[in-house]
Amino acid sequence: MQFSPEVLIVLGPLFAAAFAGLLQRYIGDRIAQIITTASIGVSLALSWPIFLNFVWGDAHPYLIELFKFIDVGGFTSTWSVRIDSLSATMLVVVTTVSFLVHVYSWGYMAEDPHRARFFSYLSFFTFAMLALVTANDLLQLFFGWEGVGVASYLLIGFWYQKRSANDAAIKAFITNRVGDFGFALGIMLAFFCYHSIRYEDVFSAAAAHPNLMFGIGAFQVRAVEAVSFLLFIGAMGKSAQFFLHVWLPDAMEGPTPVSALIHAATMVTAGVFMVCRCGELFQLAPMAAGFVTVIGATTALFAATVGVAQNDIKRVVAYSTCSQLGYMFFAAGVGAYNAAMFHLFTHAFFKALLFLGAGSVIHGLHHEQDMRNMGGVRKPMPITWAMMIIGTLALIGFGIPAIGPFPGLGLAGFYSKDAIIESAFLSNGTGAQFAFWCGVSAAFLTSFYSWRLAFMTFEGAYRGSHGADHAHGHGKEGTAEPDAHSHGHGYEAHAKADGSAPAHESPWVMLVPLVVLAAGAVFAGIIFAPYFLGVHAEAFWRGVVPLHGEHEGALPTWVTWAPLTVTVAGFLLAVIFYLWNTGAAKALAKGPLWAFLYNKWYFDEIYDFIFVKGARAIGDLFWKVGDQKIIDGLGPDGVAASSRFFSRNLRKLQTGFVYHYSFLMLIAAVAFGAYAIWAGIGAPR
Amino acid sequence: MSDLMHLPWLTIVTFLPTAGALLILLARVLARGVEPGYDAAVRVLTLIFTIATFLVSLVAFAAFDSNAPGFQLVENVAWAFGFGYHLGVDSLSMTLILLTTFLTPLCILASWSIQKQVASYMILFLILETLMIGVFCAMDLVLFYLFFEGGLIPMFILIGVWGGQRRVYAAFKFFLYTLLGSILMLVAIVAMINIAHTSSIPDLIAYAQHVGFDPNVQIWLWLAFFASFAVKLPMWPVHTWLPDAHVEAPTAASVVLAAILLKMGGYGFLRFSLPMFPSASHFFTPMVFALSVIAIIWASLVAFRQADMKKLIAYSSVAHMGFVTLGIFSGTLQGIQGGIYQMLSHGIISGALFLCVGVVYDRMHTREIAFYGGLVNRMPVYAAVFMLFTMGNVGLPGTSGFPGEILSLVGAFQVNAWFVVAATTGVIFSAVYALTLYRKVALGNIENPKLGGILDLDGREWVTFVPLIVATLIMGLAPSIVLHFTEGAAQSIATAYAGGVTP
How far apart are the first and last CA of chain B? Predict the structure, then answer.
């Protein structure tokens, strides 16, 4: 047991959370805010040097072990802080975004009566996430995994009076648990096959016995395939991948800073982190890796199509997150773990920026989230607008590819996203070509929905009717049309004379985090690309994730230019529909395809029918038929009923005549004696 | 110090509560009628005796050497008919005794609101504690049986007299179910004594290891014991007495029922079935696994549909006990350790959940879920406590609910992965019913005007919960402390089982 700065990074937020949470009645909101923010600040200040030492220094991976968590017959987990380039990357991502979100929340949550509780949850989340990324075995990973899950549950349902928030929180937790079902089985199988759950032991055993089989009877698979597959099921839940994505959009019920921190920058990327951490397993498991690729690519495209048709500003960004996570996964699936991690890194900046920017707009418009009721926000909120445009450019991956001797130049997303699309093109892994085309198509849609969001929110005339009625549906129950009729009236009365929105720019405590994140969105790519992806990648990663450097050079020009081309195309399309000819957008929104996309391919309806109603029906069946009719009916109640029946009839035997009784006794004695002799009871042994 | 070590600590722990009961009885006889303040004095006296029992059990714990093999603190006095008054503990029984003595004072605190015949209630509770502790330290089969069955009677009366509206039905159902199983066990006990010519449990274990019961006989003996323990635990399909008993029982009786009486079933499997009938245990493992998996899925889904808070938690107990049997009958070290851990953790968490129900029941006199809603608005501290134990029930890592679950599954996985795949769905279902319950009771706005004046936890309730909160978190974050302690017993059971399976 030793104490060190690395331990403080992880445990500091826990103590701050406990302090703020347990003593909130006595210390008040202000002190709770200061304590939690300061502790994250300390973690931040301690994390960056560690990370930069991997980037520019010559740090080696190291491990700090605290004490045994569980140790039963080789099933051993130790509370650890593992530091290598992978966890160091996550440390700076988590602490940076968390710190900025803490600061931002000072402004965003200023009116909330439960600020101390909010900051306590935020810090607890940060602790769990840090414990997750610094784990040295699968069980601590699982601990952090569930810890961030419960923090997410608490924060989505932070406004506990709202039924929709509570339902979203439960949905998030349960969907994640479906993933954890796979994760837990993966841990068990890893222990069963490799007799350990420590990363190094598992990876080296898997590498030493790559063809170890697992199965019963005719069902036999390679163990490493099965372990990788099961672990990925966990990642699908946490990172909201296709089939298990349904919770993420609903998670937007939480306060916006939470969406930025948990449901964009950090927690949802835990699945990507896990796949990269276990890259040495997926490396050996082409089928599982192919599955990762296909699911990731499908998610990237699917979520982008749904994002196109959403009206709630946060939901658009949420689907965008889902889609970008898909990119990260198919990058990992095709073996480009470094590209996946780099996209995770850059995405954290620009997606947190977009969420906090959206939060600023929502704040400025007094909690209006429906883009149909926005418009004309640029003028009253110029800084927010500028930051959102930077975020948008970074998200769509704007940049000029390398031409001849000139290196490419662009915003953060350009470096990471193009690297992913190119890796998919060059890979000959299962599903890689599918992933490439999904990636390119999704890039087109990303550009379209991002600009749609920017135009609908900031440009044109204000369409809202502030304070008039709040009975309108918030996206979820609303109609599929981008311009609901109910809001047609009265907006001119509320909009300012020049058509701009009656909004106010957010306070500086909210804007400064935006500016910092915008700086990251602009520069994170150009500064760190050489270390994550380029010439210094070997030195940076030091074998923590498998690298495939041999791809360079074989890339056709059209592949290099494809992302930029589709991005510009998406931009132009958005300009046409949402700036020049808004009537066309309304016409588009009346079509059945739009309704299909708006309703998210009807996943919620299908799941509700199968799982929710199914569970209720089976539960009732087991209870009312199984327990009450069959088990109790045949068991105790049946016995009771029949004994009542017999006792009624036996009563007739109670005649009251002594000789009847004595006669019965005689018969019984004879019968018993006969049985004893027959059975040999009492005979000498 | 060495003189202290030789005191008969187990006897003291076991019968100290009875001494308290006698004292109350004596006071009652002397007082001849109810004097003002009598009930209050009885409560305090009972609390003092149960706390003293806990302290003495800590002394016994201190005198116990977890590194030494076999049974310790042994007391063996010849008794009637050749049966011995024979007590002893290993680390398994030591932890269960500690669980019992730890929870009983909290139950007494939770019974403060009992107004009806306080003295009788407390006397029964004290006797019940003696019988429960006795079960775990009895080292003679007949003595074990007496304690095991004796526990039925006070519980029967507690439910039947202090229970809810359908208390008589519930009490009889409870009594008949458990008695039926026990009679079969009695027959098996007689048979075992006849075969092995001893009623001493350590001798029987040694006999099983060195001579061994005939495999064909083992089958019957195993089944007879199984009938008793399966009802007690309870396993599917003999579980339906539990929800009824819980619903009707007063809060503290529910706590004891869930936390300790159920554990006697698991204890029995570990003490008798596995080490004494290893080949039969091995033979029946698929059946036990199947019943466990059915219990987990079935009870979870049924719990999801309950409208009564206690019934929901009772069904969740059935599901959690499924993990216990899964772990125990894997026969692996991880599984047995997981089973033991799950029993301890369930003792604390389900006990605490029943106390949580008791808190609002005391205020509103209903357990109907639909009656509540939005409690967090009026009772934030209660809501936080309830949240913690809900998460424990869900098996969240960091609470005591997690290590037992994962270890049981890891152990069982090594025997049969397919059953474990099915059982692991329990981690999904537990979240479904537990979080739904929490939402319906604690979250949202207060819709029911009757809840408008409901008050948060008072000092007594807070004192009741704090030890449970601390235990849940310590057992969740540093389970290796407990696991290290129980490893000796778990290892010897696993060894005995493994030795008997492969002759």
Answer: 45
Query: Does A67 reach chain B within 8 Å, measured CB to CB?
Result: yes
The question of ipTM being above 0.95 is answered as: no
Average pLDDT rounded to a whole number, residues A207-218: 83
- A122 SS3 class: helix
Alpha-carbon span B135 to B148, nearest angstrom: 6
Chain A residues whose beta carbon lies within 8 Å of the beta carbon of residue B230: none
By C-alpha distance, the chain A residue nearest B397 is A143
Helices (H), B111-200: 118-137, 141-150, 152-162, 167-196
**Which DSSP category does B22 fall into?**
H
- Rounded Cα distance, A312 and A472, in Å: 12
Please tell me the total number of residues recorded for chain B in this structure. 503
Quick one: closest CA in A to B425, which residue?
A: A181
Window B:295-354, CB contacts with A under 8 Å: 298, 301-306, 332-334, 337-338
pLDDT digits (tens, 9 = 90+) for A393-450: 999 988 888 777 777 788 998 999 999 998 999 888 888 899 999 999 999 999 999 9
End-to-end Cα separation, chain A, in angstroms: 64
B320-355 confidence digits (pLDDT tens): 999 999 999 999 999 999 999 999 999 999 999 999
Residues 6+ apart with CB under 8 A from B395: B401, B402, B405, B427, B430
* Confidence bin at A142 (pLDDT 50/70/90): very high
Can you spell out the DSSP letters for A424-466? HHH--STTHHHHHHHHHHHHHHHHHHHHHHHHHHHSS-----T
- On whether any CB of chain A is under 8 Å from the CB of B374, the answer is yes
Q: How many CA atoms lie within 13 A of A470 on its CB side?
A: 6
Query: Chain B residue closest to A219 (CA)?
Result: B418
Which has the closest alpha carbon to A315: A276, A277, A346, A354? A354
pTM for the full model?
A: 0.90
Q: A 561-580 residues with CB below 8 A of B?
A: none
Q: Decide if B487 and A72 are in contact by the 8 Å CB cutoff.
A: yes
Q: How many CB atoms lie within 10 A of CB A140?
A: 25
Distance of CA B232 to the CA centre of its chain: 10
* Residue B420 to residue A188, Cβ atoms within 8 A: yes
Q: Is A84 helix (H, G, I), strand (E, B) or coil?
A: coil
B465 CB-side CA count, 13 A: 23
Scanning A136-165 for CB atoms below 8 A from B yields 139, 142-143, 146-147, 150, 153, 157, 160-161, 163
pLDDT at residue A647 tops 80: no
pLDDT exceeds cutoff 70 at A475: no
Given A69, A163, A623, which is nearest B444 (Cβ)? A163
The DSSP-derived string for B295-316 is: HHHHHHHHHHT-SBHHHHHHHH
Winning range, highest mean pLDDT, from A459-473, A658-672, B406-420: B406-420
Contact B304 A619 (CB under 8 A): yes
Return phi, psi of residue B32, to 5°: 50, 70
Q: What is the DSSP letter of A612?
A: I
Give the torsion sign (CA, B104, B108, B111, B116). Answer: positive
A77 φ/ψ angles, rounded to the nearest 5 degrees: -130, 135
Check if A616 contacts B (Cβ < 8 Å): yes
Burial B403-413 (b: 16+ CB within 10 A, else e): bbbbbbbbbbb
Name the residue in chain A with its Cα closest to that of B432: A174
Cα–Cα dist A643/B22, whole Å? 39
Residue A626 is classified by DSSP as I
Q: Does B418 touch chain A (CB under 8 A)?
A: yes
